[in-house]
Amino acid sequence: MKKKVLSLLLASALLAGCGNKEESGTQGQEPAADGSTELSIWVHETDSSEEGKLYGALVEEFNEKYAGKYHAVISQIARSGDAGGYDDKVNAAISNGGLPDVYTVDGVTVAQYADAGAIIPIDEYFTKEELSDYNPSIIEQGTYNGKLYTLGAMDSSVGIFYNKDMFDAASITPPTEDDPWTLEELTDAAKKLTTDDCYGITMSLDAKDETLIYFFLPLVQSQGGNVVSDDGLTAEGYLNGEKTVNLLSWIKEMTDNGYASATPAENSFELGQAAMALTGSWEPGNLAKFDINWGLMPMVKYDENSEAVSACGSWTFAISGNCAQEKKEGAAELVRFMTSADAGARMYSANAMPPSRQSAFKGIEAFDKELSVFKYQLANTAKARPVSVNYAILSNQFATAVQNVLTGMDVKEALDQAVEQYNFQTDTQ
To answer: Which of 373, 401, 231 is nearest to 308 (CA)?
Structure first.
C-alpha cells in the first residue's frame, strides 16, 4: 500500500508548482547544551523569500520562548521539479525513514501522507476551543478518515476582480459578499462588457495544472456535487457526472461566444484587455504594479437554488510518522506556534495570503475593506478540495478535460476520457 501511495506522492510533486533550486543552510544546528529536547523541522521556502525569512524568525522565537525545554532546528528547502526539490526530499525521506519531526505539507497531499503513515493525527494535542479559531476549511483540509493531521498558518481564496471604471460605464452593480451572482448573471455581465478589444472576463483557461480544478471545483460543489466520491477514490459518475458536464459546458459557451479567451494574454485584466478576472487571493500583489481601479466580488454560485461555495487551502504543518514518542508533545507545541494567530497575520505581510485563523484577521485592515470578500468566504462558504490519495491524478485529468473541450472535443466525451485515464492510472500505480 505504501509503495502505491509513494508513487502517487511523486506524481503530486511533478504536478505541483515549481520554485527555484536553491537550498539554504540549516539554522540553529548547534547542540542544545541546556538539555532541551531537539526538534527538527523542514519547510518548503528558503530564506531568499519573505515567507522563508518568516519561518526562520518564528523558529528562533520558538526557541527563545521554550529555552531549556525545546530547541527546534529548521531546514529550508526550495521546491523544484528535480531531485533537489522539497517534494522529492520529503518523498525520499518517507522511503528511507529520514523524515524530520515536523514538516510542511501541501493541503492537497494530506490524504496521501496520512495514508502512507508519513504524518500522524494531532487531535489529542489541541482543544476544541483552539481549533474553533481556525477557518473551518483548514480543519476540513487537514482531516482524513475522521482524524485531524495538519494545521496551517495561511489559507487562500478565489473571487472575481473587476474593473470599476468599466462597470460604471456599463451601469453594472457588483454583487455583495453575502449575495453572489449566479452563473447566468455573470454571463450577462460578461456579455455587456465584451468589446472588440476587451473580453468580459479572463479565467486562466490556458492553465494545464491544478489551477483549473482549484478555480472551478466550487461550481460543481455549488450544485451539490463533486468530482470524486466521498472516500476520494471513485471518479466514475462524479468527474464525468451531470454537474461537471454542466460546468464545462458553461466554460465552452463563454469561449464560443467570445466572452472569455481560451488562450488569455498575460495580465489581460491588469492591462484593461478583460473587464473581470476569476483569480486568487494573491492577485492584489500583482495589481499593485498596474494603474487600475479595481474591486473584488465573491465567487459566483451555479444558480439561484445552489449553495455559495468558494475555494480555499494552502500549505500546512504536520508531525511526521518518524517523530519519537517522547518528542510528540514538543512537536505539537511547534505546530501550534507556527500556526498561531500572530504567525498568520505576519504571513499575510510576508506573502499576501489570508491567515488560517479568524482572530488573525482582526489586525489586518485590508480584510475589512478591499479584501473583505475573502474574509467572508473563508468563514462562510469555503470548501476544501477533495481529501483524496488520488488528488494529483484527478487534478491532472480535470485540466486535460478542460483543454480537450476548448480545442473542440465534446464535453461528455472529454470527461469520459478523463475518467478512463483516471481509472487506468490509479489501477496501475
So the answer is: 373
As a three-state string, the secondary structure of 64-82 is HHCCCCEEEEEEEECCCCC
**Alpha carbon distance 371, 364 (integer Å):** 10
DSSP designation for 44: S
C-alpha angle 397/403/404, rounded to 5°?
85
Residue 29 confidence (pLDDT) above 60:
no
Cβ contact 122:149 at 8 Å:
yes
User: Dihedrals φ, ψ of 112, to 5°?
Assistant: -60, -50
Please give the Cα distance from 46 to 43 (Å, whole number): 8
Give the Cβ contact number of residue 276 at 10 Å. Answer: 28
pTM score: 0.90
The model's pLDDT over 254-295, given as tens digits with 9 standing for 90+, comes to: 999 999 999 999 999 999 999 999 999 999 999 999 999 999
What kind and span of H or E run contains 41?
strand 37-43
Reported as a single tens digit per residue, the pLDDT across 163-213 is 999 999 999 999 999 999 999 999 999 999 999 999 999 999 999 899 999
| Spatial contact of 133 and 126, defined as CB atoms under 8 Å apart | no
Q: In what order do the strands lie in the sheet with 294-297?
A: 276-280, 158-163, 294-297
Q: For residues 140 and 147, what is the distance between their CA atoms, to the nearest angstrom?
A: 10
Phi, psi (rounded to 5 degrees) for 375: -60, -45
Cβ–Cβ < 8 Å for 191, 251: no
Distance CA 424, CA 401 (A): 15
Residue pair 249/216 in contact by the 8 Å Cβ criterion: no
Give the three cell numbers for residue 208.
494545464
Angle 151-315-354 from CA coordinates, rounded to 5°: 85
Q: What is the DSSP letter of 223?
A: T
- Spatial CB neighbours of 107, under 8 Å, sequence gap ≥ 6: 141, 142, 150, 152, 313, 314, 315, 316, 384, 385
Task: Choose the weakest-confidence range: 29-38, 96-105, 162-171, 241-250.
Answer: 29-38
Local structure of residue 78 (DSSP, 8 states): -
* Closest C-alpha to 338, from 91, 22, 45: 45
pLDDT in tens, 351-371: 999 999 999 999 899 999 999
Query: Strand, coil or helix: what is 163?
Result: strand
Pairing state between β 37-43 and 70-77? parallel
What's the grid cell of residue 71? 530547541
Compute the residue count for the chain. Answer: 429
**Nearest to 390, CA basis, from 342, 335, 428, 349:** 428
